[in-house]
Hints:
Elements: H1 2-27, E1 29-30, E2 38-39, E3 42-46, H2 49-55, E4 78-80, H3 89-107, E5 113-116, E6 120-125, H4 129-138, E7 145-148, H5 154-165, E8 169-174, H6 178-191, E9 195-199, H7 205-219, E10 224-227, H8 242-270, E11 274-279, H9 292-312, E12 317-324, E13 329-330, E14 333-334, H10 336-349, H11 353-362, H12 372-383, E15 393-396
Parallel strand pairs: 4-5, 7-8, 7-10, 8-9, 10-11, 11-12, 12-15
Antiparallel strand pairs: 1-2, 3-6, 5-6, 13-14
Helix pairs in contact: 1-3, 1-7, 1-8, 5-12, 7-8, 8-9
Amino acid sequence: MENKAAEKKSVSLRQLxxxxxxxxxxxxSPTGQPDIPFEPxxxxxxxxxxxxxxxxxxxxxxxxxxxxxxxKGQRPPLFVDxxxxxxxxxDIRKRLGDxxxxxxxxxxxxxDIVCLRNLGxxxxxxxxxxxxxxxxxDMPLQNKVALVTGAAGAIGYGVCCGLLEKGCHLVASDLPxxxxxxxxxxxxxxxxxxxxxxxxxxxxxxSVVRGFESVILTWGGIDIVVVNAGIPLVSYLKDIDLDAFxxxxxxxxxxxxLTLGEIARHFIAQGTGGDVxxxxxxxxxxxxxxxxxxxxxxxxxxxxxxxxxxELAQYDVRVNMVAPDGVFAEGKYKSGLWAAVGPDRMxxxxxxxxxxxxxxxxxxxxxxxxxxxxxxxAVLFFATRQTPTTGVTIPVDGGLPDATPR
Length: 406
């Protein structure tokens, strides 16, 4: 009996995760701006027994109290009858759209609470008026949800901090374990409940799907994805172990493919566009000896991004790349790539860690050390849609002549 109840609950949550992005998209406010056509909402969910019981009947709108943390207001919730699991996404979205349109005509506003029979409640979480006014200019990504894969490292930390500073609700994702837990806790110290950590193994389709569902059930949907998960390998082609190469291919290529596929389906269902930024590498246009497996698999990752930009433009989804040179650390977070690659590079050049960083600084035209925050600035250029651009790459390398043909 308990197993059947748990299975039923799991199916309901999965169905709610399919519907929530549609509701979130329909509740978004048109802005009239072609580059940023919608202002999104944060859409939270209630799925406990009290919420499901409340969602079951419109008569509950007259109840004295609503399920916590909802507060009864001047306008009632919108109640939606049970959805048929066999209906197409288009039919489901039309039913939801018709309900929201009818509500808007009656009350001259979209609903803040949507009750879905047998599934639970979705409700809009809004910042206070004071906070909203202060953040309107300083936080252009307010109410946008950003997911960063492979987050718990130097580049990931820089990117996460940059997105939070611009107002995002942030999903820090990496393999499950203490590393991700500590990383998330660090970010929460400054951003509080605008940060969650969601374990995702990008090589496992089920893990990717469940991870996305977890985000959706927390905040209603996703607007920005930074594809940062990747691993390196130092070996000459004649010496490469085939199993080691396959592991790189699994993470760097298949992981990117699975992430792109899932976010594409999500963005199409949500209907408000979206942004994907892939962390590529200067090794795509300028590969190095002994780094062939990494260069080849990241080139495939990069090419998938270019193809996605072509396929998804019709949905106002922009897909762009940033291509950094070596980022050794950001704050207290060291690069996992350089932890693997650094020792070989130091031995080859007879340098210690500080000397290796100095070598990379001096090899670029600007004589500058590339940091995670530099990469974040490039990501934010795309995420804030400064120009109508898709399918392109920003190099973040201080100027490397041999990497300029892009």
